[in-house]
Every structure is written in structure tokens, then in C-alpha cells.
Amino acid sequence: MPVNQTYKDNVEKQKIILDCDPGHDDAVAIMLAGSSPAIEVLGITIVAGNQTLEKTTINALNVCQHLGLDIPVFSGCDRPMIRERKIADDIHGETGLDGTHFDPLTKKAENKHAVQFIIDRLMASDGDITLVSTGPLTNYAMALRLEPAITTKIKQFVLMGGSYQLGNVTSAAEFNIIADADAAHVVFTSGRKVVMIGLDVTRKVLCYPSIVERMGKADNKASKLFVDLMNFYNHSQKEVFGWDGGPLHDPVTIAYLIDPSVVTAKAMYTEIDIRSTQSYGRTNCDYFGYLKKESNSYVGIDIDVDKFWNIIEDGIKMYK
Q1: Of these residues, 19, 21, 26, 200, which one is catalytic?
Q2: Residue 262 carries which DSSP code?
Q3: Domain ranges of the chain
Q4: Would you say residue 207 has pLDDT above 50?
């Protein structure tokens, strides 16, 4: 059944704040969230990660302008809470969105800082806002520290990050977590529901050339952007990891919100390693329940690959 049909009778859209660091796969997450009839994006908050804050902010504005998305964009933290900044220019290039060209940018970021927007929007809410993260968790962690009263206002966190198996920056750690593991620690110990969609899942949705060709057939502004972005992304992923298709990490968070059955998740106790040298940033997930601790997260362990690509295709086709 098409995604649009599944949700056509929904009375209410899911309200989300999307915190990201665009990023090729973040751009596709924005694309998917912005077109979904199941989701209302209250704001896009930006963090440094895949590139510097200035560049990731420009990238978010460019994607929204190109797709005609009337969503406010808020620039946030330009570095981790404690550690030195880490960027992923080996994957995403000099701009963070290499491989495509945008029209001259006229859309502007809001004057309010992202952290303050998160606080203000949550405090004014009925506790019905999901905080989605596809980058380092700095903005959300800083909001929790600045105004602890927002904690009970958070419906849940849904994040792309971590792994209960292998990392992609070190053998232990995934990029979004190691970029600010202290912030991840704040989120995972917040007491709110955390849905962690990590590399164990996202490495299964490889954007092979056949997928790029399939999405290009929609022949609209979204599909053309997808093709441009994925052609560059696949090239860099091939150089770094040897894959013929790059894993489309970040949109899995949005696909999960659109249709939770796309991801199989398991309740686990997860602890962020913020102390060691060799394994800093590792998400230590107690898969078998050895520690006998109450779970604080739902960790993605599998994904319906065909269903995921159907959701992506439906989202792209929503654009003109």
C-alpha cells in the first residue's frame, strides 16, 4: 500500500523538530520529512558535523529553498560540548553537499539560536513533539542542560547514530556519536524514550546505481536533486569504504516515523563511552541483557529494505 494511502485518514500529523548537519543523507531526510503527509516539521535546527556550522546551515537553507519547503531553519552549536570539532569532509566534500548546484540563496536562517528554539517550542507544547537527530546531538543536549524542564515535554528521541557492532570512524564508534559523545550521554541518560537507528541497520540500505536510476524516473526537482547528491555520495563512499552504493543513513529515521514497521528494534540498555581512549564514542548496547539494567533505548537491529526504498520513492514523487 502506498505511504500516502496508509496515512490519508490520520487526524494529526506527527510533530517533529529535525536536528541535522547536511550532509547528503541529511538532505534526503529533509526531502522525505518535508513531503510526508504523516509529519509536520516544526523547525530544522542545525549543528556542525558533516561540515562546519556555516556550511551545514547554508546546505539546509538551499535544500529547503530548492524543494519549496516553508520550514524555519535555526543555526545552532558550532562545536561539541567539550571536545574539538570533527567534520566528515572525506564523505561530503568541501561544501558538505558537493555534487549539485543550487540557485542563488534567498532563504535566510532565523535569528533565534537553535537551542533556544528547541527550548521555547517544547515548553509551549503539549508534550507531543518528537526530537529527530541525524547529526551530533549537541543542540539537544545543550537544551536539556540549559532548561531541564523540557525533559518531560519530549515525546521521544529518534536518532541516527551509534552501532551495537562496528563503527565507521573507529572500530568502535559511529560518526554522529563520536563527534559529541558527551552530548549523546546527556540524551541517553535523559529518561526519555530513545530510538537509536545505527549503522547495523543503515548499512543495509545501500543506494546502488539501480536505486539512483529508479528514483530519477520521477523526473521532478526532488528526484533530480537526489540523483545529483547520490552520484557524488556513492563516489566518495566507494573511495572510503569500497561500496558500490553508499548507505543512506539519515532518512531511516524519517522512514521509521512514517511507518515504524520498516525497522525492527530491540529494547536495550545503552551506555555511551565517554571515558576511554580507544573506544570513545562507542554505544555499548546490552543486546543480551547481561547487565540486568532497565532498558533506556530501542535499538534498530534490522530493516525491511524494499519497504524503505518504497517510502523514499513515495516521498520523492510528492514533489512537482
Answers
A1: 21
A2: G
A3: 3-201+249-317
A4: yes
